[in-house]
Amino acid sequence: MNQYPGKNLPEYIKPEGKWANTFSYHPFDVELREAKGIYLYDTEGNQYIDASGGPMAVNIGHNDERMKRAIHEQLDKFNFVHPILANGPKAELCNKLASIAPGTLNASYLVSGGSEAVDTAMKLVRQSQLARGHKDKHKIISNHESYHGMTIATLSVSGSAGSQGPFEPMLQRYPQINQYSDYKKPEGMTREEWGTISAQELEHAIHYAGPKTVAAYLATPHGAGCDYAVVPPTSYWQRIREICDHYDVLLVADEVVTGFGRTGKWFAMEHFGVQADIMTTAKGMSGMYAPLGAVTVSDEVNEPFKKDAYFIHGFTGGGHPVAVAAGIATIDVLREDKLVENAANMEAVLFSHKQQLLSHPTIKDIRGWGLFMVGELVKNKDTMEFFDQNQQAELLFQQLALKHGLVMYGSLYGARRQPAFRRGLPFWISPPLCITEEQIHDMMGRLDETLTEWEQTLGL
Ligand SMILES: Cc1ncc(COP(=O)(O)O)c(C=O)c1O
Fold first, then answer.
1. Within a 10 A sphere around the Cβ of 25, how many other Cβ atoms?
2. Residue 224 shares a structural domain with residue 362
C-alpha cells in the first residue's frame, strides 16, 4: 500500500540524506524502481499508471525492447560524432522527420529539448527574415499565458508580463495577444465565427507593433494556461495563416506537447489543414528515452540556408547519436504499433468518461483531443471560487492520485493563479499512446476515486 494516508498534507521533501546535493526538490517521497508500458513501480512495490506520460512526454510505452535495442546498437557503433564530420544517424532521423512532418516542412535542426527548440526557432526566425531582406523584422508575437520553455529567451515569449517572477527584468518582451478562448465567445455566435474574430487580435498586434518589425507569430496549436487544451475552430488557424502571409510574418507552431501522435494525428496543426513555416518538437519525439528536440522548417525558410546564409548557432549535444537513435526508433515504434491511430481511436473511449467527471462538484470543464484530456478544477462551479491558498489543493490532489495509483502531472498555475481570470486548476490526462481500452477505464476509475476522496478531504 502507498504510504500516504490521504488526510495530512505532505510536507515538501527537504534535500536531506542521499538527496542532500540535489539542487531541486521533489514534492513526494516516491522513488521509481522500474517502469513497463503505461505502468510505474516504486521501491515499495506500489504500482501506478503514468497518467500524464510524465509532463505529456512519454508517447510510447516505458521499457520498450525495440527502443533499448536501438540505443544499444548505436552505442556499440559510436557514441558521438565530432561536429566537423558527417553524422549519419542525424541524416536518417531528419529524413524520417521529413516523411511524417506536414507539407513542405522538410529540413530539421536537431537539439536536446523543447526549450532549446523554441530558442533555436527564435534565432532562425531572425536570420530567416534577414536572409529575405527584412532587416527590421525581429519581433516575435506570442500569446499571453503561453508556455514555451525555461531559458531566458523562451521565458520572454511565454506567459504574461509580470508572471515570470524574478526574471522579469531580464526578459526581452515582445507584444503578446490573447489566445482563442471558448469562455469569451459571445452567446449566439458559432465557434467558427468567433474563431475568425479572435484571430483578428494578431492583425491588431502586428499593426501596433509595426508590420515592418514583426518577424514571427509563435503559438501552440491548442490553448495554454487557463485555457489549456482548448482546441480552436479551423477558422481561427486559417485566418491566422492568412494574416501571417499578408504581413510576411513567419508562423511558428510549437508542437513540443502536441507532436508525435498525442492528438490523434502526427502533428496537431494537421487537424486545421494549416501548415506552419517552422515547427518545434521535443518530448514525445523520443518518448523521453533520451533528451531530443527539433526545429523543422519549410523548404522556403530553408532556401537561403542551402545557398549562402549560415545559421549562427550550435549546441555540443545537438544531434547526439544516442538521442537520435532513440528518435529514429520512436518513429518506427509509433508506425509499427499504429500508436497515432490508437490515439485517434482511443479519444472516444477516454472522453466517454466526460459526463461522469463533470458530475463531480469540482470539475468545471473537460476538454482536449486524442489521448489528451484536461480537466478544470474549481471549488465552486457557479461562482468559480477557487481553493484557499493554504488548502494546497493541487498538492493534495496529486498526493491522493498517488494513493489511488496514478502519477499525475500537476498544474503549475494553481499556486500562481491570477484572481483576475476566475478560472480553475487544470489537470492533465495524457498517458503513453499504447494504452488500451481496458487500461483507460482502469485509469479513469482511479481518477474518479481520487476526485471523490479529494472532495471529501476538502469538505466539498
Ligand atoms: C509547448 C511547450 N514548448 C516548449 C516546452 C519546453 O520544453 P522542455 O521542457 O523540453 O524544455 C514545453 C514544456 O513543457 C512546452 O509545453
1. 10
2. no
CA pair distance 341, 334, nearest whole angstrom = 9
Q: Going by CA atoms, what residue is nearest to atom 8 of ligand 1?
A: 114
Cα 193 to Cα 43: distance, rounded to the nearest angstrom: 53
Convert the pLDDT of each residue in 187-219 to its tens digit. 999 999 999 999 999 999 999 999 999 999 999
How far is CA 55 from each of CA 134, 178, 257, 408, rounded to the nearest angstrom? 38, 24, 9, 9
Verify that 348 and 320 share a domain, yes or no. Answer: no
The total number of structural domains in the chain stands at 2
| pLDDT tens digit sequence for 13-42 | 667 788 888 887 677 889 999 999 999 999
Q: Which of 336, 363, 389 is the last residue of a domain?
A: 336
d(CA 363, CA 397): 13
Residue bearing the CA closest to ligand 1, atom 7: 114
Mutate to test the pocket of ligand 1, among 257, 258, 374 (most ligand atoms within 8 A of CB): 257
- Closest among 141, 160, 100 to 284, alpha carbons compared: 100
Is residue 3 in a domain?
A: no
pLDDT in tens, 418-460: 666 678 888 999 999 999 999 999 999 999 999 999 999 998 8
Query: How far is it, in rounded angstroms, from Cα 101 to Cα 281?
Result: 11
Q: How many CB atoms lie within 10 A of CB 157?
A: 28
- Domain of residue 273: give its range: 65-336
* Greatest distance between any 2 Cα atoms in the chain: 66
- d(CA 185, CA 189) in angstroms, rounded, equals 7
Residue 306 inside a domain? The answer is yes
How far, in Å, CA of 40 to CA of 277, rounded?
A: 38
DSSP string, 32-72: EEEEEBTEEEETTS-EEEETTHHHHT--S-BT-HHHHHHHH
Q: Which residues line ligand 1 (CB under 6 A)?
A: 55, 113-115, 118, 147-149, 220, 254, 256-257, 282
Q: Do 310 and 302 form a contact (C-beta atoms < 8 A)? A: no
Domain contains 159: yes
Q: What is the pLDDT of residues 258-274, one digit of tens each?
A: 999 999 999 999 999 99
